[in-house]
Amino acid sequence: MRLNKFISETGVCSRRQADQWIEAGRVTCNGARAVLGTKVGAGDEVRIDGELLGSKQTQVYIALNKPVGITCTNEAHIEGNIIAFVGHRERIFAIGRLDKESEGLILLTNNGDIVNEILRSENNHEKEYIVTVDRPITDFSLALMASGVRIMGEMTMAAQVSRVDRRTFRIVLTQGLNRQIRRMCSALGYKVQRLQRVRIINIHLGDLKPGEWRDLTPQELARLLPKPNAALPKRRPPTTGVRS
């Protein structure tokens, strides 16, 4: 097994982060500094910053309704970080991010493979948002958002856009540029007052209250783990957690 996959399956971080740690010289295998592409097998000793890495953890997949003010970072020293907020018993990390001032659905896991599956741009996974701006939005502006808006020197990809009310619209994206929706609105003369993500692929926010989380269902995971031999976690009684 490749070293970055081994590290990610222990729940410490994603494969991408593992590669960064390996390149930085923070990882050793059997006492020697590891390099990208190192392979490990049963009995090999892997350490990060001198600390022995544990065995593979039970895989965790949860959906959180992130409140405004929580920062989507895995860095424990940052105040208000999402990992401390959730307080899960396993070491987990967020898949992607929502801006601190945004809210809604975000997924967390300890499985680095699923991170790559969701974030890989060529997979064109849908993410759905409900957006409220500071003044009535015109049909023309909505049409521009649907066809593409120039931000950061490039045109955004076509999107599904529909009106909710005078100042609120629904948008479905298949790309994830930095602060994309806020930049699109700003380019058309609007300021976002509320941005809520309500769906990632086949996973819906539903009736989760802000700060509440739940385990993903086997049906939801079946879409995220497309390989026929991918093992789904054993069904457990519904679990919810809430932080105020």
Concise summary:
The chain is α+β, with helices and mostly antiparallel strands and 244 residues long.
Overall description:
The chain has 244 residues and is an alpha+beta fold. It folds into three domains: 3-52, Structural Genomics Hypothetical 15.5 Kd Protein In mrcA-pckA Intergenic Region, Chain A (Roll), CATH 3.10.290; 61-121 and 206-226, Alpha-Beta Plaits (2-Layer Sandwich), CATH 3.30.70; 126-200, Alpha-Beta Plaits (2-Layer Sandwich). It has helices at residues 3-9, 15-23, 82-86, 112-119, 139-147, 180-187, 218-224, and strands at 27-29, 32-33, 46-48, 51-52, 61-66, 93-95, 103-109, 127-133, 150-151, 154-155, 160-165, 168-173, 192-200, 203-204, 212-215, 240-242. Strands 5, 6, 7, 8, 11, 12, 13, 14, 15 and 16 form a ten-stranded mixed beta sheet that branches. It has a four-stranded antiparallel beta sheet with strand order 2-1-3-4. Strands 9-10 form a two-stranded antiparallel sheet. Helix 1 (3-9) packs across helix 2.
